[in-house]
Design brief:
With about 300 residues, the protein is an alpha/beta fold. It has 10 helices and 15 strands. It is elongated, with a radius of gyration of 25 Å.
Length: about 300
């Protein structure tokens, strides 16, 4: 019996709550998972789990074995990392989840540069405008713009995500240009379905100000709102990582420079520091190097 593999199967079954979920996660058949568990119980000499059709629970021996298995797997991972050649190039597949707007505006170019440097790596890029469950959907890494993250996940801050209020020259020619944040209540504001649909938040002269907004177009991702703004449909609050090029070219005009929209952290999120594959570690380091504390797209606007 491959005891390390059996331990990994056992830990995964416990973490995911079922043998079928563990089988999917480990890309094993259900009978193979069952065989690993049975062989581990034979080797330990005790029943580790009580299995019913509705739930799975650990026995006292299972609780003790679980903690020891975690220790053994961590030691094995440390040993592999210690003896791995320092110049060994990462290889394998990474599944990365990211919002459509950040994915198209910034991450695709970063991924292209990464695989050029490490041709042994393949990237499965999932552009999704929802929060995914990393374990259930077998995501190795998620890029999220948020100040509130799941405490059960590990987050590495990469950069800052700022926003800008802007509109196309065509819209401003037909409507008065807002001079104060309160003027936005009289304009057609293009809003995000999930973030600030009815209320935009700013910092003005060191004070927090919230302004009710409304408009005739709402969308669940920022790229659509930018296209609507470029068409002259209204005023949008857009992330600078996406709008920077249009602002530089003059296709969009920055409004209310004295008002600072809420800033969000740009994070790389993953499930655990333990047993981290070299490929995931290298991607994290690569992204931290590329997306610095003061992002390039904001420096271009200064």
């Amino acid at each position: 019996m491959d005891r390390l593999s059996a331990m990994r199967v056992f830990v995964t079954v416990v973490d995911l709550g079922s043998q079928s979920a563990a089988a999917d996660h480990l890309d094993l058949s259900r009978p193979v998972v069952s065989r690993y568990l049975a062989e581990l119980e034979d080797w330990v000499g005790a029943r580790l789990m009580q299995r019913t059709t509705r739930r799975l629970s650990l026995t006292a021996a299972g609780q003790e074995t679980l903690s020891r298995c975690r220790q053994m797997l961590e030691l094995a991972g440390d040993l592999q990392a210690a003896v791995r050649a320092p110049d060994e190039a990462p290889r394998g597949e990474l599944r990365i989840s990211v919002s459509t707007s950040f994915g198209q505006a910034q991450l695709v170019d970063a991924v292209a540069a990464y695989v050029k440097r490490y041709p042994g790596v393949t990237i499965d890029l999932q552009m999704l405008d929802r929060t995914v469950n990393l374990v259930d959907e077998r995501i190795d890494l998620a890029i999220r713009t948020s100040n509130e993250l799941d405490p059960n996940l590990i987050a590495r801050r990469l950069s800052v995500c700022r926003s800008v209020v802007c509109a196309a020259p065509a819209y401003l020619r037909e409507h008065s240009t807002p001079m104060q944040v309160e003027d936005l209540t009289r304009h057609n504001c293009l809003t995000h379905s999930y973030f600030g649909r009815h209320l935009w938040h700013f910092e003005v002269n060191g004070e927090s100000v919230s302004v009710p907004v409304q408009g005739n177009i709402s969308a669940n991702e920022a790229m659509t709102l930018q296209r609507a703004a470029l068409a002259g449909s209204g005023i949008a609050m857009l992330p600078t990582y996406q709008a920077a090029a249009a602002l530089r070219s003059g296709e969009l005009i920055r409004l209310l420079p004295q008002a600072k929209p809420q800033e969000l952290n740009l994070n790389a999120v993953y499930t655990s520091r333990k047993h981290m594959p070299a490929t995931l570690r290298s991607m994290l380091d690569f992204l931290a190097e590329r997306f610095t504390a003061e992002p390039q797209w904001d420096r271009d606007l200064q």
